[in-house]
């Protein structure tokens, strides 16, 4: 069985789930404990981060590497077109999306780390973290702050970078006709941009969906609305609604 090692709340892991779902490949999404994931990840891939895919004898870390690997081995429903200009455009957009992911994470955590729902999802419903909740909660919170630099000044700089990156993507979207980012069908660029900006919008069926958006911290609520009034936000929501056919529960096992 194919296994995707993940953190349920990670948008890079959402990108990897989407890549697998797009090709209709069977897999189990297995959660690892933040921090304790590192020995396995390092041993198998020489990297520290999740997502990490185990497929047969192969272990692959990094969502973009996972995309290249899967397209190479399972060519149906390709993420990348053969035409060199489309390929280059998609790879450039995937890199922009990776930067969006970094800044979305830093800016949003500044407001969301103190929200009870965030820690609830991080701890999971059961397992070691839940059993040791009293200790694991503050420990994980501190770890996240340090690892991702969740400090007000840095978060504000991230918000500005985010604005610039989103403008850049939006211009490319409009230049390509407004439906998809590259050519005339869904591909790596769309999956990467939509998954890595999904926490800003909380689409249905994702870890960031909430019952009462009115309860979101004000800066997030305002930014969400600003983006939804623009082609970028409408594009992300439309692609999620029409093209995100999740086959595995993001909560993982
Ligand atoms: N470039 C990587 C980034 C993945 C990433 O940043 N993963 C984070 C979770 S969102 C992680 O594993 N952090 C834990 C760590 O660095 O120890 C990718 O595209 O997969």
TrEMBL record:
Gene3D superfamilies: 1.20.1050.10, Glutaredoxin. Pfam families: GST_N_3. Keywords: Transferase. InterPro entries: Glutathione-S-Trfase_C_sf (IPR036282), Glutathione_S-Trfase_N (IPR004045), Thioredoxin-like_sf (IPR036249). Residues 1-78 form the GST N-terminal domain. It comes from the Bacteria. Coiled coil: none annotated. GO terms for biological process: glutathione metabolic process; L-phenylalanine catabolic process. The keyword Transferase applies. GO terms for molecular function: glutathione transferase activity; maleylacetoacetate isomerase activity. This is Glutathione S-transferase. It comes from Alkanindiges hydrocarboniclasticus.
């Amino acid at each position: 069985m194919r296994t995707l090692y993940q953190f349920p709340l990670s948008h890079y892991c959402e990108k990897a789930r989407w890549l697998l779902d797009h090709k209709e490949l069977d897999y189990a999404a297995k959660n690892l404990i933040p921090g304790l994931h590192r020995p396995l990840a390092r041993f198998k891939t020489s990297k520290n981060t999740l997502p990490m895919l185990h497929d047969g004898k192969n272990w692959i870390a990094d969502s973009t590497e996972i995309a290249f690997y899967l397209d190479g081995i399972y060519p149906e429903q390709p993420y990348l077109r053969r035409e060199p200009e489309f390929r280059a455009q998609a790879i450039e957009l995937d890199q922009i999306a990776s930067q969006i992911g970094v800044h979305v994470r830093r800016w949003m955590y500044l407001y969301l780390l103190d929200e009870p729902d965030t820690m609830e999802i991080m701890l999971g419903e059961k397992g070691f973290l839940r059993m040791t909740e009293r200790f694991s909660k503050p420990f994980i919170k501190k770890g996240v702050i340090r690892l991702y630099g969740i400090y007000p000044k840095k978060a504000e700089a991230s918000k500005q970078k985010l604005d610039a990156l989103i403008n850049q993507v939006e211009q490319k979207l409009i230049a390509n006709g407004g439906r998809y980012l590259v050519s005339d069908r869904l591909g790596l660029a769309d999956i990467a941009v939509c998954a890595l900006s999904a926490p800003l919008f909380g689409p249905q069926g994702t870890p960031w969906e909430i019952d009462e958006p009115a309860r979101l911290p004000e800066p997030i609520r305002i930014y969400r609305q600003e983006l939804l009034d623009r082609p970028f936000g409408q594009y992300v929501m439309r692609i999620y609604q029409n093209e995100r056919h999740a086959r595995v529960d993001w909560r993982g096992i």
